[in-house]
Specification:
Helix content is about 15%, strand content about 30%. The chain is of the alpha+beta class. A 6-stranded antiparallel beta sheet has the order 1-2-8-3-6-9, covered by helices on one side. Strand 1 (about 60-65) and strand 2 (about 70-75) form a beta hairpin. The longest helix has 12 residues, at about 30-40.
Length: about 190
């Protein structure tokens, strides 16, 4: 055997289990939270039977908790919205599971179809609305768990729209955000 081989230098990884990191029971990085949301989204058996639709208010159900995070399942009938808000000190991953939702920010609006994810940091301000004619379902992962959701005046969006309100502009810089389809993790900061 060649004495310069990587195997001889590093050793057989299967023979040195003490060098392997144990798999984490819970996510700890943004990529792992995105992965958690994707794995739940990919397995409707975990959530589809829980979905309810309520004509008077958005329906929500805490699906899972872990050390420092929460996973929420929400349904939206046509016309329902969140109101303009931020998430306090929480970061998050929003994943559209079924239907489509419209996200409005100071930068403009985006239609988010099934399979699209939004990743955001503390201080991110948005409104989510079901502008479609069909119900929608979304998954929200917050880390740390959501302890506040300050509501903001709608005039904040209208003022931004009056100054251009297009993608890439706005009165206030937004925190790290990303719009990602399944299978792609992308972090964009502004």
């Amino acid at each position: 055997m060649n004495s310069d081989s990587d195997l001889q230098i590093a050793g057989d990884i299967l023979e040195v289990p003490h060098l392997l990191q144990a798999p984490r029971e819970h996510p700890a990085t943004v990529a792992e939270f995105v992965g958690l949301a994707r794995s739940i989204a990919a397995d409707p058996a975990q959530w589809a039977h829980l979905v309810r639709y309520d004509a008077t208010t958005r329906w929500y159900h805490r699906l899972r908790t872990g050390p420092g995070y929460e996973v929420w399942l929400l349904s939206w009938v046509p016309g329902q919205g969140s109101g303009l808000h931020d998430h306090g000190r929480s970061s998050g991953v929003l994943t559209v599971l079924d239907g489509e939702l419209t996200e409005r920010t100071e930068r403009g609006k985006r239609v988010l179809g099934a399979g699209v994810q939004r990743v955001f940091a503390p201080g991110y301000v948005h409104e989510v609305v079901n502008d479609a004619l069909e119900p929608a379902v979304s998954l929200h992962v917050y880390f740390p768990g959501l302890t506040e959701m300050p509501m903001l005046p709608e005039s904040r969006l209208r003022a931004a729209a009056g100054t251009g309100g297009t993608e890439g502009t706005g009165a206030t810089p937004m925190a790290c955000t990303a719009l990602v389809p399944y299978g792609q993790v992308d972090a964009v900061s502004s």
